[in-house]
Amino acid sequence: MALLSQITDFQFEAGCDEAGRGCLAGPVVAAAVILPPDFHHPWLNDSKQVGKSHREALRKIIESESLFWGIGSCSPAEIDKINILNASILAMHRALDNLGTLPQFIAVDGNRFKPWRNVAHKTEVKGDGRFLHIAAASILAKTHRDTLMENLHFAHPHYGWDRNAGYPTASHRQAIRDFGITEHHRKTFRLLPEQLSLF
Question: Is this model's pTM higher than 0.90 or not?
């Protein structure tokens, strides 16, 4: 099924999505994207449905061809302080702050959002698989976050963040057992199933 361009007829409707909500380590990263009305690319879809090489290629295309785009994030410390839902929404607000223009409408992936600058918005469950601008935002959020985690990997190579991006894989959890946690881990998350005291 072909993805829809947007919800409204406004010229500047921004799609918004985040990446990294379910991770044990690293920030949650969000993106906001306003695409040209005639934008299309056969690979563009929900980032979870797109392979790594295609995601990286799409990142360059979206950044060069979109009318506006912005990235925002919330740190693990912020996530621990305000919880992951609020941090995800705050990261999206920060992405909108960095968009470079005031959108006329905001289309948000998921079912929860808080108003931003009195701009009308609508949440769309699985919107990253239904709307082009939300899919584009999902690609930017995922690729920017993956790059960040790959860079953090060099300082903390035991955890395999260049491969797992901070998600709760068996090898990541084993590394937490073996080496403890870092400042990049989310202390309020269930880092190990056995609920060991880690800090």
Answer: yes
